[in-house]
Design brief:
Layout (H helix, E strand, L loop, with lengths): L1 H14 L10 H13 L9 H25 L1 H15 L5 H13 L3 H12 L7 H30 L1 H19 L7 H29 L2 H11 L7 H15 L11 H31 L1
Length: 292
Amino acid sequence: MSLLAILFGLAIERFFDNIENKRNFDWSVNFSNWVRHKFSNTGLWNDTLGLIVIILIPVFSCAIIYSLLYDALSLLGFAFAVFTLVYSLGPQRIHQRVRLYIDASEFDDQHSAKTYAIETLGNELPDDNDTINKRICEKLIIATNDNILGVFFWFVLLGPMGALLYRIASTLYEHAENNSNESEYGEFHNSSRLLFAILVWIPNQLTMLCFAVTGSFIDAFQQWKEHIANDYLNPAESNETLVASGLSALQINSETHSFELSTVNNVLALCWRSIIVWVTALALMTLAGWAG
């Protein structure tokens, strides 16, 4: 079931351009803020316990709906699983947007290229194209794990509940990073960082393995060995390891390499190859299970 759901999810993600407009996880941040304000006098709600309860409510609700639909008709349960998976991907379609950026740059459409770059990186664009391309490459590598493969991993492990859990944790982590000055919610934000660090670490390692398999294994593995001791339970450092491994898989030295448009294209190709390797490995395990 997981393999078919993931294949359907990738097809929907690839061919439905307006799918990202349907994704909105602001409700998870609003819900957590509401709970923390509602029970502000109780310190427990501003710590790990509050985070667990806030996340478990939507995840447990997802489990109930999935169970009811699957018991009524397995096809309904499968459709709900695919819906939850697609909803939990992204939220942005970074890979497709970067492809549009490459195409616009190749046709010298500077206005469109800048628009796609802003949509990918945010409003504060660097002045030179080399730095823009470098940051797009880094964004691509991180998004391959955070937006797609990390969601797939937890979907395979826990079903639609796992995909939803991962995306909510990621959303709360990003909110914590963007609002680190909220000292009154410091413990809650620290708990959000810790939870996401736990959820993202194994997918990160698997994504780096995919980069190594589809690129230069020795170079990627060397970067992994140099960084692995520093990124435990730290999503930011874990992402640095991921980026270093991804670039090394293409034998790129981020300090000396000139990040031209061809580099962005190569990184995009590496990311898609890694997704294909991940899905292929899942297919082989599924076939082995059926054969067994």
